[in-house]
Specification:
This protein has 315 residues and is an alpha/beta fold. The chain has a single domain, classed as Rossmann fold (3-Layer(aba) Sandwich). The protein contains 11 helices and 8 strands. It is globular, with a radius of gyration of 18 Å. It starts with 5 loop residues before the first helix and ends with a helix.
């Protein structure tokens, strides 16, 4: 019998009792509005933090909006670049505002959240290109950050986990400061294989297989694009030389198996990996913190794992 945490079961029961339309049926614009509304009901607000400000980052197609979070006095330090989830189609700085602030508070890191271009307005590889450019910019200690950057890490959930893996592959060993870690939170890392968990949790567990496939083809419309390592980082020939990784999967997630596979491939390549699977948890849980109080401990553990990976990298 599949284990489901009590608070997760309560949320699933609530969603089953009042089902909403599929994002794939709504389309991108209405889907973004629904996602934002869901977050305002089911996630926690930003809360108190010393500094939050919007900045603009030079990108390959113009300025990339971003938001800086800092809960300490800036002098110098490591910076975490965060890429939001949402299937490369939905999500933005507002949908992940509370989560980004909590990571900055709990980690003591400056967090820079990136509002990369999304599909269908900007298809593959626009999101990847923006995230690579933004990370390069942060690593260069631009004056806009207000502190000297001593190291960089990347993190992201779902599609943001995909983009974190892509950035790590593209920029490992290529930055002016150490690339200290990558935190992949229930990542989407493969658009090619029909993973068993996609069918096991195809329906009734928040993210559905149909919606995931719609996200993939909206972002990367052709098979050639979906096989590219900038879309499917699991397809990389080798993962040797990557920054230390923290990989978190959810036990009730269609993306579970590909996340497991990526963690295993990193480890096989000699990369330091901390792997955690959140038993009884659905996809997107870190944006459902008001509805899922049990997830607070998992988020705290993930942040501690990230800091440990960064400190080990610096040793």
């Amino acid at each position: 019998m599949t284990y489901v945490r009590p608070d997760v079961q309560a949320l699933l029961d609530q969603m089953k009792a009042a089902p909403g339309p599929s994002i794939a049926d709504l389309g991108a614009v209405a889907g973004r509005e629904m996602y934002r509304a869901m977050g305002s009901m089911l996630d926690l607000p930003r809360g108190d933090i010393a500094e939050v400000r919007d900045i603009a980052i030079p990108g390959p197609a113009g300025a990339i909006p971003a938001r800086l979070y800092r809960n300490h006095k800036p002098k110098s330090g490591d910076v975490l670049v965060y890429f939001h989830g949402g299937g490369w189609v939905i999500g933005d700085l507002e949908s992940h505002d509370g989560l980004a602030a909590e990571i900055a508070r709990a980690s003591g890191l400056t967090v820079v959240a990136i509002d990369y271009r999304m599909a269908p307005e900007a298809i593959f590889p626009a999101a990847a290109d923006d995230c690579i450019a933004a990370t390069r910019w942060v690593a260069g200690s631009p004056a806009e950050l207000g502190e000297k950057v001593t190291g960089v890490a990347v993190a992201g959930d779902s599609a943001g986990g995909n983009l974190s893996a892509v950035v790590a592959q593209a920029l490992a060993g290529q930055l002016p400061v150490p690339f200290k870690a990558q935190w992949l939170i229930y990542p989407a890392v493969d658009m090619v294989e029909d993973w068993a968990s996609l069918d096991e949790f195809a329906d009734d567990y928040v993210l559905t297989k149909a919606v995931m496939r719609w996200f993939e083809v909206t972002y990367a419309p052709t098979a050639t694009q979906r096989h590219d390592v900038l879309a499917s980082p699991l397809r990389a020939t080798s993962l040797a030389g990557q920054p230390p990784a923290v990989v978190m999967t959810c036990g009730l997630d269609p993306l579970r198996d590909q996340g497991r596979a990526y963690a295993a491939k990193l480890a096989e390549a000699g990369v330091s990996v901390t792997f955690r699977e959140l038993a009884g948890v659905v996809h997107g849980a870190f944006n459902l913190r008001a509805a899922l109080p049990s997830i607070a401990a998992d988020l705290k553990r993930g942040i501690a794992d990230l800091r440990a990976a960064m400190e080990a990298s610096a040793a």
